[in-house]
Amino acid sequence: MNKQWVSIFVAAFFEVGWVIGLKHADSMLEWLGTVIAIIISFYLLIKAGESLPVGTVYAVFVGLGTAGTVLADSLLFGEPWKLAKIASIAVLLAGVIGLKLLTGEPVEQEVKE
Questions:
Q1: pTM of this prediction?
Q2: What's 80's DSSP letter?
Q3: Lower Cβ count inside 10 Å, N or C end of the chain?
Q4: Separation CA 69–CA 57 (nearest Å)
């Protein structure tokens, strides 16, 4: 896995943080953390999109962020698990994994002099 894919996973982690922050932030410090998470998340997303297919990058980012947010909602805030929810997340993650596997690594072009 190259550096761009790692940055997408890190960006998705920060996406989960800022989504939680948008709902639960009450203090100035929590709002500051939310804004910082947004900046880091989108910066890493944009940098990955410079060398990987943007559609795939965005789909993986959103898919991982969605799955992470549902997981965090259940673990941190007591949201109940339902079979339909688990199945939907499994299908979503299967699509994300499929996109990742079908997207080839960027090929660097040689410069001829």
A1: 0.76
A2: P
A3: C
A4: 18
Amino acid at 105: E
d(CA 52, CA 3): 11
Hey, what are 10's tokens?
A: 């890190």
Nearest to 40 by CA among 48, 30, 28: 48
Q: Which structure tokens are listed for 98?
A: 């499929």
**CB neighbourhood size of 23 (10 A):** 10
CA dihedral 21, 49, 53, 2 (to 10 degrees): -90
More confident residue, 5 or 105: 5
Q: CA nearest 20: which of 61, 63, 75?
A: 75
Q: Which residue has the tokens 């979503």?
A: 92
Q: Which two three-digit tokens encode residue 88?
A: 């939907």
Residue ranges of domains in the chain: 3-102
User: How open is the CA angle 92-71-80, to the nearest 5 degrees?
Assistant: 105
Predicted confidence (pLDDT) per residue in 5-23, tens digit = 899 999 999 999 999 999 9
